[in-house]
Design brief:
By secondary structure, the chain is of the alpha/beta class. It is built from 12 helices and 6 strands. The protein is elongated and about 65 Å long. Bound molecules: zinc ion.
Length: 298
């Protein structure tokens, strides 16, 4: 069987079949942007706890009633103003981890708490499962902690990492996960349609004609509280990368040289890593990314 759990078909369908056939892996990587990978992860872990064995939540059994999501409890990565993770609904065996509202990363303490939750026996006797909903925000330290779970997964546990940028994860993490790819065409347009994304694209379209002062001014917009600025830079790079990708395809089809665009693409990936994993200054990273766009398009 191919490394993709779902083969060519619908990811949710492939996952439901795996549950029904009792062929569930201990770790998955859901790769794709937009809401679909996240929504699928939620439904998948609920189905793992469901006692029907149907492969999708039956919505009638006690486990499904417990795992029905309510108002989400706000997570705080430092554990000061909220929990390090939340449960799905109030199901004790289903854990949801994401970056705290004021955080620039998924913290190592959150990964350790998850590890601890997996060590306990399942309260309901079924599978225990956890989702790390924004795995692109795991830094090296957190990923190394996660490796311990991936290397020796406790019996009947399943971990799902969700990220639009699998390349941002350590190869050792990626290789231990069953990859489930979500079709880009279904997620891409939705991502590109937000007002912010459209604004970024409109501005990038003229970046080739901008002078150095214009670019420095633009990068200055990424000052201020780091968590907010870092998220904005990641959005700039994400939207810009997608846009660069489509213009590169057009240029290649038209027979134009694309080597500068490909070089920019590499620089953008490095920029992304430096802001997510190495806590680089968002404004500096934005400058580097914007100059890379300019170089590619001038
Ligand atoms: Zn059920």
């Amino acid at each position: 069987m191919a490394k993709t759990a779902s083969g060519q078909g619908d990811p949710a369908h492939g996952l439901a079949e795996a549950i029904a056939a009792d062929r569930v892996h201990s770790a998955y990587l859901f790769a794709g942007g937009g809401d679909e990978p996240r929504d699928t992860a939620l439904s998948f872990v609920r189905a793992l706890a469901c006692s029907s064995g149907l492969g999708t939540p039956c919505e009638a059994c006690p486990a499904c009633r417990r795992s029905t999501p309510g108002d989400p409890v706000e997570i705080d990565g430092s554990g000061k103003s909220g929990p390090l993770y939340r449960h799905v609904g109030d199901h004790p065996d289903l854990v949801w981890v994401e970056r705290g509202a004021g955080d620039t990363r998924v913290r190592i303490g959150q990964v350790r708490a998850l590890q601890e939750a997996f060590r306990l026996r399942g309260v309901e006797g079924g599978r225990r499962a956890a989702v790390i909903a924004d795995a692109e925000w795991l830094n090296h330290e957190s990923q190394n902690a996660l490796l311990r779970i991936l290397e020796e997964p406790p019996a009947r546990t399943t971990l799902v990492l969700v990220t639009p940028q699998p390349a941002g994860l350590l190869a050792t993490v990626r290789s231990r996960c069953q990859r489930v790819r979500f079709p880009v065409d279904r997620n891409g347009p939705a991502d590109m349609q937000s007002d912010e994304a459209l604004e970024i694209v409109a501005r990038l379209a003229s970046v080739g004609r901008m002078g150095v002062p214009d670019i420095l001014d633009w990068a200055e917009e990424y000052r201020g509280p780091r968590a907010i600025a870092a998220a904005a830079v990641v959005e700039l790079i994400g939207v810009g990368t997608q846009w660069l990708h489509s213009t590169t395809c057009e240029a290649a089809c038209a027979g134009d040289p694309v080597d500068r665009r490909l070089a920019a693409w590499t620089t953008l990936q490095q920029c992304r890593k430096s802001v997510v994993q190495r806590n680089a200054n968002p404004q500096m990273v934005a400058e580097r990314a914007l100059f890379a766009f300019q170089e590619a398009l001038s």
